[in-house]
Design goal:
CATH superfamily: Winged helix-like DNA-binding domain superfamily/Winged helix DNA-binding domain
Mean pLDDT: 86
CATH class: Mainly Alpha
Shape: globular
Structural class: alpha+beta
Number of domains: 1
Order of helices and strands: HEHHEEEHE
Strand order of the largest sheet: 1-3-2
Helix content: 40-55%
């Protein structure tokens, strides 16, 4: 099994961290992927690799992110001069 994240999986983690305070929903996954099956598979892989953990039905909390995602989130916050919401993520 491939243990690297796809570009879409990284985008999914990025959107959850940047726009939703580290919360990933099935609705966000479905809007990112072309099919429900693909969205569920992406969530399953992120769970298996310990990037997310379920907090309620249809919702997961991001536990860690890649260096690239962490850097991108930092660059966007610096350029927009917004304060962080205190969410910190472990780097994978």
């Amino acid at each position: 099994m491939d243990l690297s994240l796809s570009e879409k999986q990284e985008i999914l983690l990025y959107k959850a961290c940047k726009d939703r305070g580290g919360k990933l929903s099935i609705h966000l996954a479905r809007s990112t992927y072309s099919s429900d099956n693909s969205a569920k598979s992406a969530i399953d892989k992120l769970k298996m690799m310990n990037y997310i953990e379920q907090i309620s039905p249809g919702y997961w909390q991001v536990k860690k992110v890649t260096d690239d995602i962490k850097a991108e989130i930092g660059q966007r916050q610096d350029s927009s001069e917004q304060e962080t919401d205190g969410a910190e993520y472990e780097i994978a």
